[in-house]
Amino acid sequence: MKSTLSLNETEKKILSLALKDDDRVQTHYSKEVFNCHYLPDLIQHLRRKLERFFDIADGTDILLTEPHEVLKIDGSVARIGIYRISPNYKKRLAEIIKANQDSEVSREN
């Protein structure tokens, strides 16, 4: 396993919110929270990046999709997926995010 993982601002935001089990890590909030049009594309890219970093075969083991059903205004039910970090990786990803933030601060000074 490598010692550092390069993350852009959107990836940091996704992982930071997912670490807090924030329900906004879903497609409905793509534009509002993450300034993107389609969050699943970013999630797939991030999963591949995490696969390489942790040297595992499947990034869905790290960044899980938790299925939910929500009631729409018209009374119908829609299925959504909220992205969560596996408990097995939470501690390590928290350390990685902190290291990324610390390196940004040291570059600014």
Provide a concise account of the structure shown.
Helices cover 50% and strands 17% of the residues. It has helices spanning 9-19, 30-34, 39-54, 87-108; strands at 63-71, 77-85.
Q: What does this protein structure show overall?
A:
Helix content is 50%, strand content 17%. The chain is an alpha+beta fold and 109 residues long. The protein has a two-stranded antiparallel ribbon with strand order 1-2. Helix 1 (9-19) crosses helix 4 (87-108).
Question: Descriptors for this entry?
Answer:
109 residues; alpha+beta; 4 helices; two-stranded antiparallel ribbon
For the largest beta-sheet, the strand count, sense and barrel status come to: 2 strands, antiparallel
- Relative strand content: 15-25%
Distance between the termini: 29 Å
| Poorly predicted spans | none
Secondary structure class reads alpha+beta
**Treating each run of at least 4 consecutive H or I residues as one helix, how many helices?**
4
Order of helices and strands: HHHEEH
Indicate the percent of residues in helices: 40-55%
Instruction: Determine the mean pLDDT.
Output: 87
The tally of strands reads 2
Indicate the overall shape.
globular
* Lateral strand order in the biggest sheet: 1-2
Instruction: Give the C-alpha Rg.
Output: 15 Å
